[in-house]
C-alpha cells in the first residue's frame, strides 16, 4: 500500500522535473535559432497562445457546458476553468508554483511581453 502512495508522489515529482527539463531545452533551442531576445519572446508568446487555445477548446469539448450565447458567458466559463487549473495543477507543484509566482512579481517591475 505504501509503495503505491510513493509512486504517486514520484510521478508528480518526475512530471515537474520533466516539464522543467523540456521547457529549458525548448528555450535553449529558441535562443540558438533566433538572434535577439525579442524574437525568442515572440515565439514563446505565440506557442503559449496556441497551447491556451487548445486547452480551452479541449475543455469546452469535454465538459458539459452548453452553448455560450455571448462573449461574457464564454469568458466566465473560461475563467472558472482557469481558476480550477491554477488551484489543482500549478499549486500542487511547488517548483512550478514558485516560478510562476516569481515571474508574476517580476512582471510588475519589468515590461517583458511574456509576463502576465
TrEMBL record:
It comes from the Eukaryota. It is found in: Endoplasmic reticulum; Golgi apparatus, cis-Golgi network. Its main location: endoplasmic reticulum. GO terms for biological process: Golgi vesicle transport. Transmembrane segments: none annotated. One of its GO terms (cellular component) is TRAPP complex. InterPro entries: Bet3 (IPR016721), NO_sig/Golgi_transp_ligand-bd (IPR024096), TRAPP_component (IPR007194). Keywords: Endoplasmic reticulum, ER-Golgi transport, Golgi apparatus, Transport. Belongs to the TRAPP small subunits family. BET3 subfamily. May play a role in vesicular transport from endoplasmic reticulum to Golgi. This is Trafficking protein particle complex subunit 3. It comes from Cercocebus atys. The lineage of its organism: Eukaryota, Metazoa, Chordata, Craniata, Vertebrata. The gene is TRAPPC3.
